[in-house]
Prior knowledge:
Blueprint: E1 14-18, E2 23-29, E3 34-39, H1 53-58, E4 61-66, H2 84-98, E5 103-108, H3 111-121, E6 126-132, H4 140-143, H5 156-163, H6 165-171, H7 175-186, E7 198-199, E8 202-203, H8 206-212, H9 218-224, H10 226-232, E9 251-256, H11 266-273, E10 277-283, H12 290-293, H13 295-305, H14 307-311
Parallel strand pairs: 3-4, 3-5, 5-6, 6-9, 9-10
Antiparallel strand pairs: 1-2, 2-4, 7-8
Helix pairs in contact: 2-3, 5-10, 7-8
Amino acid sequence: MSDSADLDPSRFATHRFAGRGVELAYVRENIGGFPLVCVHGWPETKRIFWRVIEPLADAGFEVIASDLRGFGESGISADGYHDVPSSSRDLVALLDHLGHERAVLLGGDFGGPVIQDLALRFPERVERMVIFNSPLPYDKSSMSDMDTRPRAGAADYFIRQGTDPDGLAAELTTPAQRRAYIATFYTSRFWAHPGAFCDGIVPGGPAVDFHTEPFADGDTLRASFGPYEATFSDAARSEPALISRNPDVETLILFGASDMVIYPEFDRMAAATFPNHVGPFLLRDCGHFVPWEAPNEMVSATRAFCRDLMAS
């Protein structure tokens, strides 16, 4: 169940930064705490962190949660790029704007590759990482005995959004159709733990309405397909993404194991990708949307992982 504050779009003040050719909309709570940058995925916006922002701020973090370019209240990029490196560089520009040299990064889904890229591209800016339910690089030497393939049929959306984004966007002609499409990822596609997004016993309800509302606009929905398009098209990539094994950054690994879209052995794959890790910790009755489905667990684990940073 969600309380009214969880579903209030104005719960936290939204700030704006005219960054690298695109305006970013972001939340910033507890200024002066240790910087923690929360990076959403798809089909999400900064709202996916609504349940963890306040308790993380109370724990001593300065919580920064931005809508990535092309998502939510942020602008659509004039250069047409909505890929991993563009968002990674946007977040570094935002840190510069806020006066932060280093930060802890927290991300899942598309936000996972974004923070992985940022940590490899700008290692001097990253204190630690918290990663959950995200795409990971495949390393045959360390993962050959792991179940690294998502469930059969789970990638149909990925292929369509990546190879025919204009055709898909053209089929979704009304705000209601666009929101209904996004709603399936919270309900019938089994990304979330069963019942996580229900109104009583009926899939959907106010929480799904809250998370689908930012995708009602046609241009925003089309821009949100950009990360998938960049997987298949060189023209959609601003530059190659840096996604590889990272032995240097200390990384907390969380896994909502009810997730039917991510790798069945995400936990083992992440442990191999980030040798300097804490965990992996498997979250009971939790799927893809970890900050929403398991907010208490995420907050307590992140707080413990960074306790020494709070003390300093």
